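SAMPLE LOG
Freezer: B-3
Tube label: C17
Construct: single chain, 356 aa
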Amino acid sequence: MSTRSTRSARTTPIVELNERSREILRHVVDAYVQTGEPVGSRTLSKRLSMSLSPATIRNAMADLEDLGLLYAPHTSAGRLPTELGLRMFVSGLLEIGSLADDERARIDAQCAARGKSLPDVLSEATRTLSGLSLCAGLVLAPKTESPLKHIEFVNLGPGRALVVIVTQNGVVENRIIEVPHDLPPTALVEASNYLAARMTNRTLDEAREDILKELESHKSKLDELTSKVVSAGLGTWAGDKADGALIVRGQSHLLSDVTAIEDLERIRNLFDMLETREQMLRLLDLVGKAEGVQIFIGAENELFAATGCSMIVSPFRNGAEEIVGAIGVIGPTRINYARIIPLVDYTAKVVGRLIG
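STRUCTURE (predicted):
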C-alpha cells in the first residue's frame, strides 16, 4: 500500500472534490475492497452511474493521483487507493451497513455471561468478532480495581501456596507464592480468614495499606509465620493493576493472504508490539480520546506503519460509564469497513452491558 501524499492532499477535504471525483474514488475503493486489484478507466466507465468516457475518467483519476488519493502500482495498470484515499473515503463517503439479525443473535449468544468469568466473556467476544469479520479480533482489558468477593490460600506442598482471588466483576486470578517450609496448614486458613474480613467489598489498593500498617504495628493477633503469608499474598499483586491483558483471536485470518516472507515477519512484529504494556496503554489512550468506533488505517498509527493493516476498534464502558477496555479487529487495509464497523460497535456495547 502506497503512502504517497502531497501537501494539497492532506488539506483537501472531501467536500472540495466534485461529484465526479467522489464517485470515481468511491468505485476505486469498492473495487479494491472486493478484489485487491487496481481498476482501470474502461472498467470504471461501465460501473459509474454517470456517463463518462474512459478518457475523461483517466483525467479525473490523474487529478486524484496528484492529490495523493490514488496511485498506479505499475505504469500501465489501473489505480488503487492510497492510505490517504482510504481515509478520505472512510471519513466522507462510506455508507455504513446495518448489522444482520443473525449476526446480532450470534454475538448475543456467544457473549452470554451465564456461568462465565469476565476473561471468558471477553475471549468469547473476541473469537466471535474474528469469525464474523474474518479478521484478527482483539480485546484490550486493563486490570480494573474491582472490589473483592473472595480470597483464599491453598496449600501446594512445602514452601508453596496458591492465592485465589475472586472480584465482584467475575475475574478469577490465581498466583503461586512462596511460604515458610515449616508453615502449619492452619496458618493458611487463618491468613485467608484474616484477609477476607478486611478485604471483602474493598479493592486491593483500598485494603492493602491498612493491612500492612496493622501488621507492622503488631496490632493483629497473627503469629509471625501467618503474617508472612499475608504479606506475601498482598505483595504478589503490588503494582500489577496497570499491566492489562491483551486477548487476540483469529491471527490466521491475517496470515492467510501473506505470501512474502517479509510481510509475514511484519505481521509477527505487529503482534509482538501489541503485547507490550506500553503499546497496550497507548492504544487504549487513543481509543479513549473520542466517542464510538475508531478507525486506524496503515501509517496513521505507528503500530501499523509497515504492516499494511488497519484496525477498527471501539471502547467498552462499565456501569459508571468509565472506559475499561477496547475491542476490535485488525485486518488488511482493504477490509470491508462498511460491514465491520457495525460489528465492532455492537460487540463493544454487548460487552459493556455484560460488565455492568
